[in-house]
Write a structure and sequence with these properties.
The chain is of the alpha+beta class. Helix content is 26%, strand content 29%. It has two helices and four strands. The chain has helices at 55-68, 83-92, and strands spanning 15-22, 37-40, 45-52, 72-78. It has a four-stranded antiparallel β-sheet, covered by helices on one side.
């Protein structure tokens, strides 16, 4: 009798994260944070948003923030399924 193996998971894909830090970053940090979008918020925080390939890359980003000496406020994975794609479809119409 042939033994069937469970299906293999698909290779890991980038996940989108929002990293909120205390204080505003200047535009000069754009290259340092690579593919992340830097958004300066009215409350004085900076929001870094973008794809992160894996946990090691996420820890690398957090290390960069730590090395800057800027307090980390939050780290959230953004759910890009459903509502995000619906928004894109509405804009294309």
């Amino acid at each position: 009798m042939e033994k069937k193996l469970p299906p293999q998971p698909e290779p890991a894909q980038s996940k989108v994260y929002q990293i909120r830090i205390k204080g505003h970053l200047n535009a000069q940090w754009t290259d340092w944070f690579e593919d992340l979008t830097i958004t300066l918020e009215e409350n004085g925080d900076t929001l870094l948003t973008g794809p992160v390939i894996d946990q090691a890359a996420l820890h690398g980003l957090l290390k960069k923030i730590r090395d800057l000496g800027i307090p980390l406020v939050s780290v959230n994975q953004v759910d890009t399924r459903g509502t995000h794609s619906n928004r894109l479809k509405k804009r294309k119409k």
